[in-house]
Amino acid sequence: MSQEIRNLEPKQLWNKFADLNAVPRPSKKEERVIAFMKDFGKKLGLETIEDEVGNVIIKKPATSGLENRKTIVMQSHLDMVHQKNSDTVFDFDTQGIEMYVDGDWVRAKGTTLGADNGLGVATIMAILESKDIPHPAIEALFTIDEETGMTGAMGLKGGLLQGEILLNLDTEEDDEIDIGCAGGIDVTATRGYEQEDVPDDSVAYTITVKGLNGGHSGMDIHKGLGNANKIMNRLLFDGFENFGLQIAEINGGSLRNAIPRESVATVIIAGMYDEAYVFDMQEIIGDIKTEFKTTEPNLVIDIQKADLPKKVMDLGVQEGLVRALYTAHNGVYRMSADMADLVETSNNIARVIVKDGEISIGCLTRSSVETSKYDLANALRSAFELFGCEVTFSGSYPGWTPNVNSPILDVLTEIYEKQNGSKANVVACHAGLECGILGTNYPDMDMISFGPTIHGAHSPDERASISSAQKYWKFVLEILENIPVK
């Protein structure tokens, strides 16, 4: 771990972030970070609880003079998205994140950084450990599995927390105060297919789509970024329509909450079309690169001769697959009619796998309106069922309805304007914050979300602003001193 990270200001924050990033913490494999956090709380002599699903709660009494203030819940999630560049050799299960300073940014070497939500976790750890930071009574809530299902927030039972105010530290622009967020649902389509022998006089190609920005499938969905699965399907559709292309395998995308950056397919065509097919592909590749030249300047689409596969997909099923993927909506579906520039509903076609007679397509549909969420989910289900898929909905979680009359919102907006000389942007976000879920068992808790500036979350381009972290830390400290009285 580079010492330059630990020397950054505020040192309390960056040192705790460095400690945390030394611990592998993939979603659904949080055993080590849970043990790390429990050990941290116990070493401080604070009441430390692990609930039945793995969330960790650490309680710290108020400092002298603030005993009459409302108890607050400071909340962040322990897990992080694991993404790496294809040429990066890294084992997320065993290695800590390798960080470095790049101007005003902290980055990781070829992987996600874990600032989402590690900087929030580190903030809470620094305050729990502090001996000179004034604060009311704190219940620190560290949830698990936020990135792949929010099962930690869903499993948190009512009655464990007594706090009246929740500070969620999982927002990624330091001039924003979040008061609402989108809910989500996983849409998964699967089916089997018959495989055929490769015809005589066939030639095989590997098609690779890579170099895309990727990013957060909620916060970045409106940016017009390329989706590797949709771009690949466009290439396959054209090859099938014009040259009878047949698919042997597809491996596209990765996590549902990350816009897919890469896709690889193995295909065959009849040898007599070889030269014409390559010429046609180069024209289409040129067209696609021109379309994405502004948003995806590093897009690479490569086609190379390959060894012949043993089997290919049945043509009837293949036609249904490429047409269904063409039909299935990806990107913004509806903008909010109530909040300017807010995406209401969207879908990310995150994962496409075709191999050994099995098809699997994974989507994440988001919306701040439950009825709209299911409207889009049903549209996707219809597209996939029409070509014979079994479609399941899972992992549904609610959005967080904005409360513009929130008392803690008044506190934060006043402090922000005093510190910065300008008003904060009070927003709702198109991402899955845990506030909506936590509110189901704690409906009377006043909730707010904020955080330092983090760009490129869920991608290897993730980076955290050093100057923003300083601004955010100052904001946090004054908030703690101004929590309302009971």
UniProtKB/TrEMBL annotation:
Its EC number is 3.4.13.-. The keyword Protease applies. Coiled coil: none annotated. Gene3D superfamilies: Zn peptidases. It is an enzyme of class 3 (hydrolase). The keyword Cytoplasm does not apply. CDD domains: M20_pepD. One of its GO terms (molecular function) is dipeptidase activity. Residues 208-292 form the Peptidase M20 dimerisation domain. It holds the Pfam family Peptidase_M20. Keywords: Dipeptidase, Hydrolase, Protease. NCBIfam families: aa-his-dipept (TIGR01893). This is Dipeptidase D.
